[in-house]
Please model this.
Amino acid sequence: MSGLQEKDEGLIRVVIPQHLRTLAGVTGEVMLQVGAPVTMRKVLDALEERFPMLRGTIREYGTGQRRAFLRFFACEEDWSHESVDKVLPAVVAEGKEPLLIIGAIAGG
Amino acid sequence: MSGVRVLVGTKKGAFILTADGKRKNWQVSGPFFAGWEIYHVKGSAVDPNRLYASQSSGWFGQLIQRSDDGGATWTPVGNKFAYDGVPGTHQWYDGTAHPWEFKRVWHLEPGLADVDTVYAGVEDAALFKSSDGGTTWEELSGLRGHGSGPHWQPGAGGMCLHTIILDPSNKERMYIAISAAGTFRTDDAGKTWKPINKGLVSGTMPDPTAEVGHCVHHVAMHKARPDVLFMQKHWDIMRSDNAGDNWREVSGNLPTDFGFVIDIHAHEPETLYVVPIKSDSEHFVPDGKLRVYRSRSGGNEWEALTSGLPQKDCYVNVYRDAMAVDSLDECGIYFGTSGGQVYASADAGDSWMPIVRDLPSVLSVEVQTLA
Model:
């Protein structure tokens, strides 16, 4: 859940790919309110709640699987294959470091 | 004053080309959705300002965009295409069973009576319908549930439902085509479907006259004569005079009967247009010459239309949804190429001029005739 009323909430910084920034109508980092403990699932839930047009673009409908050509990074570590329920590093939860959603450098 | 709006989908965005009724001076706007594959853009016959666009990418999947102002502004609408029930399997290229997986929307067909009704033909092949302007989508699963579904197999471009034709004289009747399953018809608004491939002969199939399995590339219908259908099959131009129940070949004197597009003159139901393509592996026009072929006799007798089209060193393709006609008094014909050119003829194909020459590879062309 996200929301200002939660006691242990943090202000999460999320960097999304340029095409998704255009789709969502934002520039720069996206700031999200996410309650503790902060996990990838909760960040993505909050991101899609705030920007419904991003549903289906980062994770698949139905399965919730990360789309194959996207990767998640936090604190210079690849979180793409971690459980989405694993707690993210404290510096991400505290907004000191951004969570990165990166598109593969591929294609024509 | 009358005019036309040409809706162009490309591998890297959408473009809108507009002109007055003379179709001499064009304005080009776009790219819209720059960097995304736009398989199809089509406007509503009920309200020409209502447009739908299929936007997709290998990174971010499928989106549907809607415009209510003729393409000036766009809004992303629903993109959840969930197969009804357990999807099951179809055949993979090697004949093994492969699970049905949604990949993209190839074709969007707005309803003829309601601006908020729109159909989507998708890969892996299925038909979806929205009754709320694209916000939500529901599969018309009677098609995929037809008993032949497990035997459908993808063509080289994927197992796509690429053609949707609504019968203007019968709201219960609709045609679709799938590469490489064939053509199907419903007479009860999509609840049940029957394959309509009798007369098709595909020599590369184990059973060349099988009920399903034919690689149909595109089908066209003239709205004034809805029981007459014309088809560009992988090989062969085909014609049906009884709503698809039987087909006969009308390839006639074409230099090759392989191709993708086929369309019909707006005012002459027996005047057809195709662009022959060299195959099986080259997939560009024969002899370095871009030629549209026109038949004024419903097939069999074809003439090459070359005026204004490159007749040397041309090696482009014209994809299945990349030809359209307007309905002005002097029928206009339009097509786009894999090389990024969009050509227009304001005299039913006698002469051509490029509207634009250097777009990304063109996937689809539609035309709206504006009052």
Notes: The beta strands of chain A are 10-15, 30-34, 70-74, 77-78, 99-103. The radius of gyration of chain A is 13 Å. The CA atoms of residues 9 and 35 of chain A lie 4 Å apart. Chain A has three helices and five strands.
